[in-house]
Predict the 3D structure of the following.
Amino acid sequence: MEIDMEKDDPDNSERTWLGASLAELYKGKGSWCFSIPPVNASKYHTVLYELPATLKEPPKPHISQSQPSDDDCVLMPHSEKNLFSTKEDGQTVIKLRWHIINENLLKPIKNSQELESAINSYYTSSLPKFTALHYFFEQVLDHHETDSFFQGLLPKIINLALQLPDLLPQSFLLLKSNHNRSVSLSQLQVATLLANAFLCTFPWKKGMSTCPGINFMRLFAASQRPKRKDSVMEKLRCLIHYFRRVTERCPVGVLTFERRFIHRSTMPRWDMLDNIIGRTKLHVNSAGTIEDDGIGLLQVDFAHKLVGGGVLEYGCVQEEIRFVICPELIVSRMFVEALGDQEAVIVTGPERFSKYNGYGQEFKWDGNFVDETPHDEYGRRRTSVCMIDAIHFKKSKDQFYPSAMLRELNKAYVGFSSSMKGNLSPVATGNWGCGVYRGLSTLKSLLQLIACNAAERDMVYYTLEIES
């Protein structure tokens, strides 16, 4: 570990960082010099579009000649197995739910009450009242903004959602527990999935899946906690801004979602490592943030074991904020099962759409963000997000048990390690598992540093009070 002050700043009057400079970590070659994992369709990597992605137009969907078993796949809204039972002339009639969805969404929808009624017409379970959604359109937005949404943007969201059978004609594998597996989608495919999530078209009921789900109804109903109502409204602003962007200009890039699992038997022997933190360069910064300043780095998401945490409810801390300023991350909730102790998720290529200010209850949408991150040779933005969940300690002292420290070391190592060798990007992280999770930042920073060393990566640590 190198802690070294630069010679050209003798009084350190404006210095916000210690350790190795970012230029040193970038090896003098700039932010985009690091190795990237390839996109190769295989048994373990499902690619849902035709290769290669040219960035001139959205890639065409790929249709596989073989379809895995339904138990291992996402149940899509347009699936022939997604059936709807209704009464007609006193008789029970079974229909394809997708037909009901089309029928009700293509009717004029002039306000949030009519939108709620349309969604209720094709949803099996009893839905909560969309009180937050009504408050948003009736109290937060002005009349012009509300009219613009229902007259202009909502029909575009519906049109995008109903393109789903054309853009994703087949289902695809879940990223299941204890498996190393990846899925790559185009940004347009992600957009149609999120449009369906906004309209709550995904079949869902309790116990149906081990994935957290992406229908937006819990967010639309999140108005019962007055102190958190404002941040819910700001999250809705972010998400509606995303739909405005992708319906005005069709995105042409792609993303890869990778579930990574390492068996306990092949984890590092932490008690036998030599020079445990000596090789890793460390940059500590008191002013920057992971998403703003960790460009080109492996950016850590302080995740919940159900990825996204409370993004579609009341949550508004580090993970939830990242998911609403980069809404493409939300789609992972559709196919990523709960994370185990030796698992992580790496997302390569998400685009950022929004600026923001504040944190938690003070979170505010702050307008459009133009993401100038360059694309890699596979059509993905050179942004990588590492989702790792920390232990939520009931008692702070419990984090010092050897078993707890071992678990956190293993978790961080899974997220930071790579099958590629050499020229790996540094890890951009911070107070992972602190705050309400009761982790001690000094301990968590050291554990992450040890994991970085074992994964042969440098580390950039942002010390702002941004926590799990």
Confidence is low (pLDDT under 50) at residues 1-11. The chain is about 30% helix and 15% strand. The chain has one domain: 17-60+74-462. The first helix runs from residue 22 to 25.
